[in-house]
Amino acid sequence: MGPIPYGMIGGGQGAFIGGVHRTAAAIAGNWQLVAGALSSTPEKARTSGAEIGLPADRTYGSWSEMLEREAALPADRRIEAVAIVTPNYAHAAPAIAALEAGFDVIIDKPLADCVEAARAIADAVAHTGRRIAVTHTYTGYPLVKQARALVASGKFGKVRRVAVKYTQDWLSRAADLENNKQAAWRVDPAQSGDAGAFGDIGTHAANLAEFITGERITRICAELTMLEGRRIDDDGAALFHLSGGGKGTLTASQVLVGDINDLAIDVYCDEAGLHWRQEEPNTLRIGYRDRPTEIWHAGANRAYLDPGILAIQRTPGGHPEGYLEAFANIYRAFGEQLRGAQVPDGEPGFATIADALRGMEFLRASLESSRNGAVWVDLEETKA
Amino acid sequence: MGPIPYGMIGGGQGAFIGGVHRTAAAIAGNWQLVAGALSSTPEKARTSGAEIGLPADRTYGSWSEMLEREAALPADRRIEAVAIVTPNYAHAAPAIAALEAGFDVIIDKPLADCVEAARAIADAVAHTGRRIAVTHTYTGYPLVKQARALVASGKFGKVRRVAVKYTQDWLSRAADLENNKQAAWRVDPAQSGDAGAFGDIGTHAANLAEFITGERITRICAELTMLEGRRIDDDGAALFHLSGGGKGTLTASQVLVGDINDLAIDVYCDEAGLHWRQEEPNTLRIGYRDRPTEIWHAGANRAYLDPGILAIQRTPGGHPEGYLEAFANIYRAFGEQLRGAQVPDGEPGFATIADALRGMEFLRASLESSRNGAVWVDLEETKA
Amino acid sequence: MGPIPYGMIGGGQGAFIGGVHRTAAAIAGNWQLVAGALSSTPEKARTSGAEIGLPADRTYGSWSEMLEREAALPADRRIEAVAIVTPNYAHAAPAIAALEAGFDVIIDKPLADCVEAARAIADAVAHTGRRIAVTHTYTGYPLVKQARALVASGKFGKVRRVAVKYTQDWLSRAADLENNKQAAWRVDPAQSGDAGAFGDIGTHAANLAEFITGERITRICAELTMLEGRRIDDDGAALFHLSGGGKGTLTASQVLVGDINDLAIDVYCDEAGLHWRQEEPNTLRIGYRDRPTEIWHAGANRAYLDPGILAIQRTPGGHPEGYLEAFANIYRAFGEQLRGAQVPDGEPGFATIADALRGMEFLRASLESSRNGAVWVDLEETKA
Amino acid sequence: MGPIPYGMIGGGQGAFIGGVHRTAAAIAGNWQLVAGALSSTPEKARTSGAEIGLPADRTYGSWSEMLEREAALPADRRIEAVAIVTPNYAHAAPAIAALEAGFDVIIDKPLADCVEAARAIADAVAHTGRRIAVTHTYTGYPLVKQARALVASGKFGKVRRVAVKYTQDWLSRAADLENNKQAAWRVDPAQSGDAGAFGDIGTHAANLAEFITGERITRICAELTMLEGRRIDDDGAALFHLSGGGKGTLTASQVLVGDINDLAIDVYCDEAGLHWRQEEPNTLRIGYRDRPTEIWHAGANRAYLDPGILAIQRTPGGHPEGYLEAFANIYRAFGEQLRGAQVPDGEPGFATIADALRGMEFLRASLESSRNGAVWVDLEETKA
After folding, report:
1. Rounded to an integer, what distance in angstroms lies between the CA atom of residue A339 and that of residue A30?
2. What is the pTM of this model?
3. How far is CA D183 from CA A142, B183, D178, in A?
4. Which residues of A touch D (CB under 8 A)?
5. Contact between A304 and D286 using a beta-carbon 8 Å cutoff
6. Helix (H), strand (E) at residue D83
7. Looking at the predicted structure, is the pLDDT value of residue C345 above 80?
8. Contact by Cβ (8 Å): D37, D63
9. Which domains, and CATH codes, for chain A?
10. Fewer beta carbons within 10 angstroms: which end of chain A, N or C?
11. Distance from CA of A284 to the nearest CA of D (A)
């Protein structure tokens, strides 16, 4: 079977993440973009489609038109899946419609702008039986997967403490809200949901902590703040508890000057501490009590890595893979599973609806905690 | 005038910090060890004194004997100051006695094992008019002082967020409590006070945060934990507020595997982020929004450093100074002030009684917070 | 105009670099693979073509068949260019044939296995008027281009000294010659030419030095060695002179254990030293005499980078790009120029035939130097 | 027995290295400065002596006076050794006189300004039977000793290649020759000998390479250069051979901008590559072919270090030791051996006369090579 033909919703001119999805799918190699509804403005949708070389007859003026007309095509000529890269507030409607029209969905994170919308998507997944992947990019990095595998192996004992941060500086000045398409919607509660930095990148941090530890965040005490004049959090920190008994700290901010895209995590187990930083993703540092610190290197030929991790890398050691390749790993894994591949050892290679719902619950609890003076709030268990 | 003749209380065989104080004083160059009461066991006091070459007639069997006999010597032959390097619980008695006997005091941190004892020392300082320095070593590093100066200059704006950690792994196993002199008293509430890791190293972290920012920690929400079977905290984390409105996180632990002596701080201001890590103390990283990150280097000839910081360094750039030199900077600064030097720009070069009392209050509030389920607790303002 | 339709020569199953070229072209976005002669074994060529999804009717059994039949297609349906990814010894024949058949060529480095073959390709380029790009990958990294631009600006003065190394360890053991397709031909003089490590990766190092300095290597004193039992160099080092009067050292080895793919360069000018390392390609370190060291960061939004360098990056700062993206930059630049784009400021974005001929001359002189006891040998000026 | 009473020759006001020797001796703990002839100008000698607290009656106006009058004191009141910290050209006379007067000698490197002078010192050592230590500081670092021990153990196989550099920038500008006491004599052939940077710091690099490998440099091809207007080399590089068959490169420069005091070495053996850099001396990186890279940490409690290396460290892991502590290790080891300690496993802990003579021969051969157009020159075997 050839690559999976897909259509994209959102991602027109001026958008960042749409291009990332398209390049990631190209690197993955098992996807092929054949249709698109790239903007909610029909004219812009058409221009954007032409610009990236989509055939005019499959460049649609709206996502509803795309779903309707693609569904009407013969099975061997229609798209099989859609990629949804609209702002948070515009996730649920096209996602649910796509699922109900019989398409599988790959969707940017966070899953939605509020718990209700996310729940509705989850329900649609459940009743349609279609599949969905949420692109929490950072779990696509090979050494993040290796860290998870090492913790899961039990050889390092239990998780004692996690420190995770995701900090940026692109909203550090008042003027950053003007003339910036990304900023405009992300800091407007009406469009991005109630959460700002905690929704935009705090969820990545929480997801990364849960992914590597294999545990859930069960309680949180969060304090969110914002620069004067802002309506939504742009900075915050939290203490949290993990389901296995460990403790953690989490910081998410878009106003910490000099931090560019600084997602970094420390996971301390009984017998080792694992350290990974997204800006230098091709090394994993592991500290021990009684022997030298180790630097594990990424690379398709680093034989000490797990076989499944070797398999997803494109280049031998020392030929750095980056953000786009991590993103491509998500597309590839989802694509392979759409084509029938088995899920390896309980880690499908992408964030599931269950992961995404936990992300929504993380947000809800963080906001509730902060609004009440940074008190402790329990996270409810979510069911996908 | 020649070097300051001093006597040491504590620091006999098997102790770590006593030797550090002696070497630091030797590097400083303006101190001379001439007497000692190195152990509370008279026989061990004598053996220890002989081992480090103290004259037998000034190797005393107890600190009270030392204070009494030295005070009785002619002014030009007696000690001028004492260095106190006993365990926390044994700080107050000799410190107060020394002050009252007319000696200046340099004392290891934390100042005492409880607020009451610390308060008593402070009162003795106040009514005797003697001087005291508390050896919060890490503020002795030149680039820590440079960071403080940069923040104080106002050029980077206000402090937004601080992340400070001090983490070690030497108590990471149950067995670490046995056969370890340092461990034995540090984890026993009767000897070290109520606080374990937060008292031992969390106070260093808090002091560093206050030193660099020039602000006070005003509120804290702390959660302290310990390994099964322990009676005192060996791990913990906190959210806190600064007096200038900024927020912070603090982690202190002695059970985080692979972290050797990892004191590290990030201070984010409106226009720059400053980053320093004790294990590589000769660089200071400063991140900006719109220009390249800078690496500032220590060294007596790095002309971009402040004059006062150039002056305390012993070697030109690229000839690393370390822990002992930082410690020596405290001795040197205190010694110079005992000899009449002016305090440069409000930073005396060592922790004062006021700093130490704030450290005690930090501990008190952290413990109260944690005991009540990690709620927010205000720190009271302290008066030296 | 849509993407450039191209055919690939070489790159069948088991080959590494062919897949890299294909992914790079996909990331570039302005190329489309539509034909291939992926192996010199017809059956394998077909299997390999099917595996990567080439249409059967454009999967050819030999490169001569591909060139002949593609040239016979109508202009709007034939390939416009070929990518040649065969071993060194099999570069010249298909390259010349492709040029003469009217196709532009993008070809893996080194250009050929000997000066004569390279010269023949250059002659074919000259008399056909077709265009050619040689994929010296590492000059595709944005910060390498930035380093070149900084040196070219003259603000740092003249180049004093260069230290460049390219070291690996994948041939560090005798057994590495067995059962390794890459190793087999690379260490056989009949297939790779006379030079081993100096040809395979030393040429990258020399190219990088010439690219960043904007100067030529004019003299060299090289000593090449090899493990016992080998017939071709696997390790060597050299002193060299630059055309501007500066001096340099170069090391190239495939037997230095622990070095994975360690291409690294230091370029010292009168007023600054520039440092870049391929394994962490998203930072450029610049040292100064009188001010802090700077770390320049890659990223499409790091406004201090030159506009042309911002333009070729796909992701904002902190979202690392890697080896495949650097490779893609070469495809993109060559593709844009095939479509008529102007060459920006004398740097076309890929290695030209002139660069490649200098690489061949570097090799020739290095080998001559080494064979005569590591004496100094002049490099002849090459004409493309 | 108490500390070794010693007198210092050179090291008066304005000198750098004299103060370093004095502090190192103080840190070592087994030396005591009791006399000095700190300057060749009697008045300055006296002022300098008073400044550092030497008793007036043992502050001498010339080294000959010091040697004569100290030798005349009763055995239990005279100095036992002298530390010589004069410029290179003024090493031999006081060293030989001191040895002949019955004193042991610790002397700054290089041993002398020419082979003849060094030879004369060696002869004096031989016929007097006194002992001498040369302060090649950098072999005093604990992890340098650990690297040597690892190579010596044979577990990593033979040495294949060494890359060593020692580069600085403090002479990078023409004006650096004016108003700089260090610069003035170091760049004047009449005072420092024929070699500039190669003598001042290239000898450190060569010594470090020989120390860690346990081999000798047997042949060298060196090219030394200098800025316009200079009379002595300030920059240079070399290829060299080791006695065990390995190859090497060496760079020494004082004009490479941004390099502060960058002594760094890579030693590649059959099964591992060892990497150490003086500016971050508390880590040793070891790369392997088939397993993660290791970072070894300094510290008196890092149990994986050799016992002899643990023993010389003053602080536990994570409390950085630096340049002064490395220097102190040399004083301590020499002092212990003066007091009768056995030399551990063939490594006395300081550079011997044999090491120093090899350093002189390294210089001679480098200069001869460079003067003849960077040809290969054999190093003669030296006999102490």
Report:
1. 10
2. 0.96
3. 52, 50, 8
4. 286, 290-297, 303-304
5. no
6. strand D81-84
7. no
8. yes
9. 4-138 (3.40.50.720), 140-316+351-371 (3.30.360.10)
10. N
11. 10
